[in-house]
Design goal:
By secondary structure, the protein is of the alpha/beta class. It contains 12 helices and 8 strands.
Length: 252
């Protein structure tokens, strides 16, 4: 059956020295909590230090983005091969902030996903509706379309290395959170699309996280829902005690 995955997204926070200190403090706090996979997705400059600090622990390290080209004239970008060579295991693709501020589209998200999978990375694929779409009652249609476009050309075998993170954009960094029922319902819509695309077995196996302001206070209730298989954690992943509380909720 599918694994629960608790992944932190540090965004543009933590220097390398701060990352080392954080992981050194976190490791004993989450040691032995093996009912979920624990991932920290960190800024590029932190990855090498984070990978070293996480050696011998149950913490896995990911990046926050990846380019779709293997190499070339893409100033400021980082390729999948560059990430894997320094020990990166996971990568976030299509985060709402990348879509909102840096022009990511479903086309480029799909390209980045393919590049990451080809290089052996595990992808945390983000999608979700904006507030106006939720209010207009078209959440299901929006996330279904995103799921189809973002997974276009991804094989059933490659899908085994994809985690989908449902992120209602209106809940990212706002303190607002979808109700557990809303989160479960929309994660269920995504799972039904995966079922249509890849079959019942793939739909049952794929991990679908909730990523809209999950924190230590609401994690247990959100994670109790049958279609919510973990969380992509923003602000709460920057505090060892709060992040540990979420991991503990996933191990309850």
């Amino acid at each position: 059956m599918r694994r629960t995955v608790i992944a932190g997204n540090w965004k543009m926070n933590m220097t390398p020295s701060e990352a080392k200190k954080f992981i050194t403090e976190l490791a004993p706090m989450v040691k032995g909590l093996d009912k979920c996979d624990i991932v920290l997705c960190v800024p590029y400059v932190d990855i090498a230090v984070a990978c070293e600090a996480a050696k011998g622990t149950n913490i896995h390290i990911g990046a926050e983005n990846v380019h779709f080209a293997e190499s070339g004239a893409y100033t400021g970008e980082v390729s999948a091969k560059m990430l894997t060579e320094i020990g990166t295991e996971y990568v976030i693709v299509g985060h709402s902030e990348r879509r909102q501020y840096f022009g990511e589209t479903d086309t480029t998200v799909n390209q980045r996903t393919k590049a990451a999978l080809a290089a052996g990375l595990k992808v945390i694929l983000c999608l979700g509706e904006v507030k106006d779409e939720r209010l207009a009652g078209i959440t299901d249609e929006v996330v279904a379309m995103q799921t189809k476009l973002d997974l276009a050309g991804i094989t059933a075998e490659q899908l085994k290395n994809v985690i989908i993170a449902y992120e209602p954009v209106w809940a990212i960094g706002t303190g607002l959170t979808a109700t557990p029922e809303q989160a479960d319902e929309t994660c269920g819509v995504i799972r039904s699309v995966v079922r249509d695309l890849y079959g019942a077995e793939a739909a049952e196996e794929i991990t679908i996280q909730y990523g809209g302001s999950m924190n230590d206070a609401n994690a247990r209730e959100l994670l109790s829902k049958p279609n919510v298989d973990g969380g992509l954690i923003g602000g709460a992943s920057l505090k060892t005690d709060k992040f540990t509380s979420i991991v503990l909720a996933a191990n309850a």
